[in-house]
Design a protein that fits this description.
Number of helices: 6
Strand content: 25-35%
Radius of gyration: 27 Å
Helix content: 25-40%
Keywords: Membrane, Metal-binding, Transferase, Transmembrane, Transmembrane helix, Ubl conjugation pathway, Zinc, Zinc-finger
Pfam family, one: GIDE
Oligomer: single chain
Number of domains: 2
Subcellular location: Membrane
GO biological process, one term: protein ubiquitination
GO molecular function: calcium ion binding; ubiquitin protein ligase activity; zinc ion binding
Order of helices and strands: HEEEEEEEEEHEEHHHEEH
């Protein structure tokens, strides 16, 4: 083989080896996070990274959500529309539309409710429809899986719609926090700093309030008054927030910990991740063998 072929094949092998290794490690890490995190009840859950089992319910303040391809009412949807294209020798599917709903979810267990922002989550719904048609937007409801198999898959478009519905079970693992109800403590320094940063956004107003000698700048004594006023404001805001009813939230962790929402349970998810990790390990091994073969057989 010439140098160009060698470089191309070596890049392909290195990418396969590295990508397989990353996929294997990532899936093993996610499985271990799930298995090592104990299941909590919403009412007694500690603030931070937690795992819940519960049932999906409607969020009272959120308008009804309609899945765009089938027109089905649901709590969450994800769609993909692909067009069949040919280069003369083979056919492939190209994505022409891919969207996900942005509404919040509500998980309930026997002890309480938790609002979930699904942004950034791995959402794994059990309701998934795939069918085919000749228009970019499907005409009418999704066809059954059996009928879809009978269709000629070289039709112009393939549609995929995934949904979450009221009453479905939900496994959720992510970052949990509670506001109101007097549960959250006050970090005075952090809260004071946040108030000061907010006031600096209106610097003219800050100067008008605290520049007592009118020299156009804040001296040490004036800054002390700023800090004291900010501390009092932060404490007042905390008292108002604590007086509100407790509201629970789950969202994407700030760290690299997995954020997963699934109709399947923890054990089923962990098995799937282990199989995917094994597939990644096989790809990594094949890439390593290919690298070794190329190095031994290239004599450029």
């Amino acid at each position: 083989m010439d140098i160009q072929q060698f470089i191309f094949l070596m890049c392909f092998a290195v990418a396969g080896c590295g990508g397989g290794a990353w996929w294997c490690i990532n899936r093993l890490s996610e499985a271990r996070h799930m298995l090592d995190t104990p299941t909590s009840k919403i009412r007694s859950a500690a603030q931070g990274y937690v795992e819940f089992y519960g049932v999906l319910q409607e969020v009272p303040t959120v308008p009804q959500i309609i899945a765009p391809l089938t027109g089905t009412p649901c709590l969450w949807w994800r769609i993909k529309v692909e067009e069949s294209r040919s280069n003369g020798k083979s056919r492939s599917w190209s994505v022409v539309d891919s969207r996900t709903s942005e509404g919040w979810l509500q998980l309930s267990d026997a002890t309480g409710h938790c609002l979930i922002d699904p942004s950034g989550a791995q959402v794994r719904p059990s309701t998934r429809k795939v069918w085919y048609g000749n228009t970019r937007h499907p005409m009418g409801p999704a066809q059954s899986s059996f009928l879809a198999l009978l269709l000629n898959q070289e039709d112009g478009y393939r549609y995929t719609e995934e949904r979450l519905h009221v009453g479905q079970p939900l496994y959720a693992i992510g970052d949990f926090k509670t506001t109101g109800g007097g549960r959250q403590g006050l970090d005075v320094n952090a809260a004071q700093g946040e108030v000061i940063r907010e006031w600096k956004g209106d610097f003219a107003g800050l100067m008008q309030r605290f520049d007592s000698n009118g020299d156009g700048q804040l001296d040490e004594q004036e800054w002390n008054r700023v800090r004291l006023a900010a501390q009092l404001e932060a404490e007042d805001r905390h008292r108002q927030t604590s007086a509100r009813p407790a509201t629970n939230f789950m969202g994407r962790p700030q760290t690299s910990q997995p954020f997963i929402l699934s109709n399947a349970g923890e054990d089923e998810l962990a098995r799937a991740f282990y199989w995917q990790a094994a597939a990644g390990a096989v790809v990594c091994l094949l890439g390593a063998l290919a690298i070794n073969w190329l190095l031994q057989n290239y004599h450029g």
